[in-house]
Structures are given as structure tokens and as C-alpha cells.
Amino acid sequence: MNGRTSPGSPGDPLWYKDAIFYELHVKAFRDGNGDGMGDFKGLVSRLDYLKELGVDCLWILPMYPSPFRDDGYDIADYYSIHPQYGTMDDFREFLDAAHERGLRVITELVVNHTSDQHPWFQEARQSTDNPRRDWYVWSDTDDRYRGVRIIFLDTEMSNWSWDPVSKAYYWHRFFSHQPDLNFDNPAVREEMWNVMRFWLDMGVDGFRVDAVPYLIEREGTSCENLPETHDVLRFLRERLETHYPGRMLLAEANMWPEDVRPYFGEGDEFHMAFHFPIMPRMFMALRLEDRKPLVEIIERTPEIPAGCQWGIFLRNHDELTLEMVTDEERDYMYQEYARDRVARINLGIRRRLAPLLEGDRRKIELLNGLLLSLPGSPFLYYGDEIGMGDNVYLGDRNGVRTPMQWNGGWNGGFSDADPEQIYQPLISNPVYGYQAVNVDSQRRTPHSLLHWMRRIIQIRQTARAFGRGDIRFLKPANHRILAYLRTYEKETILVVNNLAGTAQAGELDLKDLEGAIPIEMFGGSPFPRIGELPYLLTMAPYQFHWFKLRWL
Amino acid sequence: MPVTSLLSDEMLRQVIAVGQADIAVGIPTLNHGGVIVDIVDAVTRCFRTHFPRERAVLLNVDGGSDDGTPELVLDPARDQRGNAGGGLRTVHRISARYAGLVSRTKEVQVAFAANELINARALAIIDPDCAVSPDSVAALLRPVLTEPCDFVTPVYARSWCEGALVSQLLRPVVRGVYGRSPLEPAAGEWACSARFASDGLPGELWDADLGPAGISLWMGTTALAGGYEARQVGLGLRPAPIRAMRAALPEVFSQVVGALFRSLELHAPYWVESRPPGSVPMIGQPTEAADDPDVPATEPLVESFRAGVRDLEPVLAEILQAETWQAVRALSESTEDVPAFGDALWSAVVYDFAAAYHRGAMHRDHLTKALVTPYLGRTAAFLAGYAGSPAGATAACEALGLEFERAKPHLVERWNPGGTQ
What we know:
Distance between the termini of chain A: 46 Å
Largest sheet of chain A: 8 strands, parallel, barrel
Structural class of chain B: alpha/beta
Oligomer: heterodimer
Radius of gyration of chain B: 22 Å
Number of helices of chain B: 19
CATH class of the largest domain in chain A: Alpha Beta
Order of helices and strands of chain B: HEHEHHEHEHEHEHHEHHEHHHHHHHH
CATH topology of the largest domain in chain A: TIM Barrel
Helix content of chain A: 25-40%
Distance between the termini of chain B: 36 Å
CATH superfamily of the largest domain in chain A: Glycosidases
Radius of gyration of chain A: 24 Å
Helix content of chain B: 40-55%
Number of domains of chain A: 3
Strand content of chain B: 5-15%
Number of strands of chain A: 21
Number of domains of chain B: 2
Strand content of chain A: 15-25%
CATH class of the largest domain in chain B: Alpha Beta
């Protein structure tokens, strides 16, 4: 399988720079065997839908055997598939079927920790001289690494937990049932590479690597973002590049962009990393009707190596995280988007896109327009393409992980099982319930959100400037207008967004593009030629335009 | 027929770019380059710290500065400075000059016109010759945003002998005539609601150059006469002017007393009716001033009073009723070090002047300037009366207000001798 070039962008090792990603839970997408839980057989049966949608790469959330105390991020076996999701053959079938359709697949790689049920940990705790003992971080006291922040403050009192079996403390940055692996141990690094190789040989196109800043611990430090962590990452990247060119590593590091920047290294660590702070600022800019938050965060985003790319998103399987905002901004976001406190969790908001935007189709389109036109590769979250709702009463973040709504029939087309058997209830309220919001009904409605999403994805894929181009903000005097140029080689796209709920006029200084004719990309209509004078555009509420500039 | 626009094309272009806002601060300027940066920063910090969620606009109406004032207002470097405190939103800044003769009145009118398009719920007008702080600007704006309130004036902590024009003339007249008065009826800074600004745009006095205090007086009395909700808010010690103004007293009277008397004319249908006295609600407590002031010497005032009565005899005899004139002349001729210019006589003098102004007894500018003479006599009497026991000064000012209330029928009678308006 070495050197395989996946379909979609054949042979292009930078395929991820143009790709549109689609994040999904296997358990939530489609139940193929009628047991109430989504599985790979079910997912295979819906790959044509994803192909029609136009996405390029699927990001599969953890599918490994797990006690599911952290939605699968507590892995108990890196070399297998959770039985409820199917068999290894089912996974291979899925992978092949996806590739046949030109869809790439990336999977989760939780490297920082395992489940405490993982055999490695079970062995390690047996005795201090067990060969696996040094695969985890142990201590006789809980004094080491004092001052290191506790991430899950709601549930954890310490980063150390007492193991009554081996009578020692073990280190964990997340839940106490997720002991951290010891990446100072070369055997652990080798084993993690073996894990990667196992899945790469099977054909996966890359990994979304979870919790990367926490791999190494050192006394007197924050135990985050340490130089030795980068050593580990360079080790894995070098192996990947040598043996599996064209595959991709995506970092999850919820930090400011300047702090994430080192994870790209000199192009020798991650290919991609999520740009977390952009996300809340898209929502903020929309509610404020002011481009300031977005422009500021993008302008403070450092350059990254040529082969690297940011990943951006509107929503995902977690809460709408508000860690990368100021206290003032967080208060504002809570007041505007989560006035009902039950919608708040950790430092964020557990809502899906459509309910966050009060079901306002214009806002949903505008934010998707931003997502697909700002620098970075966009990640869509399953169900948001049809405007699915959520259920904040399901606890934790399960409310945004409800079954996909395929039709208005039995279990919304998700499963043939008894409704009581479904892993968690479908959304069933009259506004967002599966009877009202589902794929089949939107397929039959030409102006549905689903059709619109297909169309905008299709249009984005006609211009490489979106994925690879530079950005230059135009900053017209009207701050409700967010306008920018995306330029790649000889291609220039002009994007103009009205962030306001009222009609706006904007005068764009396009002098340096004098002579160009803007061609509106959705309808192909030519607009007046750009001249010396400011270019006047009047925009309807929440309207946006993408123009391809042509010199004709 | 050519139409004169209040808003220049440049101003209109910037207003369109800003669109709707929640709060606005108008800053009239004319060659304020030396101070405008600090004012812009204070207003920006006000927006950032006190109103981070409101859409805010700084609205500079410039009379044609040639020292770069508008450029300083719009300087992008101000963004960096203003952004230091964070802030969710863009702080919009508009700066443009207006057409026509330079006057503070016109500048406020243009700010009102701009606000008609911006539609800010609260508009504060700041006097660029006085220092402002983010807190003081916020204190003016907030009542308009949070209460049923259309007009807000500041209250400053003053020593008993400071601001005699206010304590001895403006405040008692407004109180006596309108039934209530803010403590500072002529402060250079104030705030109003969008409704007030919109209603006031077709006002009659925009062509006059009333000066900052005169405009404030006109606006304040308009609020009282128009049934608008008014408030006053304590702002502590009055900041020292950051650009010294040395206008001669007659010029001040021409503007301020002229504005007062013109306001009385405009609002006569309101105040000639008998109305129960009231008060302008206070938000917070006014700060007490350190009561150890330098009391101005009274001798120069008395000398000016005596000389003025002699020099202006025909004028004063024309303006004042006979018995009032006799009393004033007698005072000026008394041998006392400081003639005892009492409340009753003082109210009769002022009301006679107001009525004469209304009657058009003489050139109005001459008339208002002539009031300086008795004012000096009255001020000397007030200062001399309480220099040794300032504790009684506040009560004396209250008594003066009551006297003006009591004497209002005298004004009504003199105002409208035929019994009809």
C-alpha cells in the first residue's frame, strides 16, 4: 500500500489543502444490522449520499474497542474495531467503498492516553517490574509536576490518581480512567507507530491526532507543548513521510494560532491543525454585525509552512468551545447563544449549528459561506448540512450526537430497531425532529439547505484559491461588510459578506484590480468592471457574494 | 431652488458606512488638534469598558480645522490605542466638516442630523475644551440607555463661591420660570435620546451662535418645557478646562443669557401657565467640593457695579421698572463696602431684563450685556454675605430659587402686559 494515491485528487500529496472534510460518528450515521447502533455496514450504505454532497474526506470519530466512558476517546485496543460498529472486514469494506467513490478517510488516533481497561495498562499496574510498567507515568507521590493545570476541572481534582493494584499514582491529563502513555519510553513511540502502520496499511488516508500538546512531562514546566513532544511528533511524521507519502496528520490543539504554529514545525510535524479561535469568532461577528473579531484573529494568525494547512469548522462533536476567547467575549457568546444555562457545558455551548442560529436559513448560509471561503480546509459536522437540531437534555455533549435523520419514517431512517433500542433518542420535536428535518424531504425540495450545501461545495471546488490562496482583507468603511480577496497563482476570488440583518452598502477599494470583471460564482452573472473609483455593492441582509475576477 | 444640506457628502458617506448604532458621542471641534487625541482615547475607552456590546460611534463635527484635528480623529493608530482594553466591536469614528459659518450651535445641529441617520439611542455631546474621562462620558450616556430618560446633565462638585453665573442667575431663573432646574443648566456636556435629538432638529435657534453653555441651556430648557424626562448625574469635581477660554463677561452674557432669554421666548406657552414646582431627578449623589476656596475679592465687583450703573443709567432706566431702577441706583450709591443686593430685588431685575428682551426694548445684544452690571453687584453681595460662613451659601441659593419661583407672576405680568400672549 506504500505510496498509494487515493482517489479524489490523484497523486497530489497536498490533497488536504483542497479537501472538504466531513466529520461523523459511526454510531450515529446509519445502523446496518438493526441493533440500534450505527455501524460500518450502515455507513457504507450511505456513502453515495456523502459523494452526492460533494465532500472529499471523511473523518471517523473513534471506532476502536472502548468502555465508552469518553465517547470512544478511551481506547482499549488500537488494533481492532468496536464490535458494535462491525468487524475488521466491515471496516475494510467501508474503506474500499469510500475510496471507490473518491472519498478519503481519516480516523482518530488518541496517542496521549489509553483507557484504563487497555491491556497495556492492566499489565503495567500488575507490578513495578512488569515490562509494560514504564509505558505509563507513575509516581509514589502525587507531588510531581505540581502546578500543572487540570483540564477537566468539573470532574478531576488532580492529574494523579491512585492505583490500588500497584499502590502508586499514575498520571492523567484528562479523566482518571485515561492514564497517559509515557512517550519518553522509545517502546511506546515504536508501538504508536505500529498502530499507525496497521491502519495505514489498511488504507486510511490520515489521522486526526487527539490531545497532542500533552505527550511529555517535565518537572517545573506546564507539561504542555514541550520540545520533547515535538521530537515525538517529528519521529512519527518522518516515518509516515518515508513509508506512506500522501497521507496526512491533523493536530487537535485547542490553542491560539501562534501557539499551534510550532506543531507544523518546519513542515516536518503536522500537515494540518485545527484553528480553534476562528470558530467562535464567526458566530461572534455574525451576532455583533461587525467583522472585527474575525479580521483580528486571522490577521494575528502566523504564516505556516507551504505544505501545511489549517482546519476550520463551525461545529463538531464537542461543545462550541469558548476557551480561546476573552472573558468578555465568552460572556457575550453565552448571552447571545446560550441564554438558557442548560446549553452550557465546560467552557462552551452544546448546540448544533441550526439551533444556534435560530434556524435562520440566511445565517446558516452565511456562516457556511464563511467556512468555505476563509483560509483553511473546512470541516462539516454530520447533520448540519440538513440543519439538524440537538437535545441539550441528553447530558454531556450527547445532544449533538443524535442519530442522523434520513427520512420521516421509522427512527428517521436511521435504524430498523425498536425506537427504545436506539443508542439515544432521535430529535423528535416539531421544529427539528426527523419528521420535519431529514435528508429525503430535502432531496425532494430543490431549494432545501441540503441542495444549497451541495451547490456551494460544488462551487468551492471550482477554485483552488479557497484552499490554497492568500487572504487580503479589504476593510471598507462599513464594518458590517466583511470583504476579502483570496488569491492563488493567477486566480483571484473576491468574497463579500454582509454580516448584518439589514441591507448594507459597501464601497470596496479595488483600485489595484482595475479592469477586472467580477463574475458571480453561483449564477455566473458578470458585474460591472472594476475601475478607479470605489466599487459599490449593495447587500441584502446576511447576503454574501463570491466573485471570480476575470480580466477580459 | 438650491437646498442646503446639513450633512456634507463626506459626512454622509461615513454615516452610511457606520449604519445604525446604539450610542454616539458628538465632539464639535475647531482647531483642537492639541487636545483631541486625549478626548478620542477617553471616548474610545468609554465605549470599550462601559459599553462593549453596544454599537458605538464617535462623531466629530469639525468647523474647518487647519491643524489636522479631523485627521487625528481618524488616525488608524488610535485603533491600536483604543483596542488595548479589548472590546468586542469596532469603534466607529466619523469626522467631517460642515458647510456654512462656524458655530458651536451648527456643530450640534449637524451631530443631531447625523444621529437622525445613525439612530443611536443615546447621544452625548462633549465640549472639547474640557477634559473628559471614560467614566464621565459613560455616566452621561447610561441613563438614556437604561432609563426612560431623554436628557441628562452633569452635576459637578463646586465650592460655594464658584460658578456664580449658574448659582445666581441661570439656575434660579430656570427654576423660577420652568418650575425646576438641573443644578448645572449650562454645562458644556450633556446627553440626549434619539427622540430628543430628532424632535430638536427643526429647532428655532440653530442659526444663533449660542456657544457651548448657551446650547446646553437651550437644550435643557427645551427638555423641561417639552415634557421630556430629564436626569442629572453626579460627575465629581469639574475638570479644569484643557484649553483656556478667556471670553469677557459681556460676551458670555451675550451668548448664555441671550440663549436663556430666547429660550424663555420659545417656551413661553409652556411656562406662562402656572405649574407646580418640582425637581430634576438626580442619579447618584453629587460629590462635595473641598470647601476651602479662594473667595474672589468683592471690591472690583462693587466698583464695576457702581461705575456700570452710572454709565448705563439710560439703558437700565429703560429696561427696569421704575421702582426697581430706583432701588438699584440707590444700592449703587450706598456707602456700604458691599451693597446688600437682596434676592427680591435681584429677581425683579432679572425678570425685568427678560421681559424687556421679549418686548424688544432695545438691541438684544446690548440688553444682555447690560445685565452684567447688576449681576456684578448681586454677585459681590452674595460673596460678601457668605465669605465668613460658607455653610449658609447653599441655603441661600435655595432661598434665591424660591424667590424666583415666588416672583414668577411678576415676569408673567411684565411679559404679557396686555393679558394675551
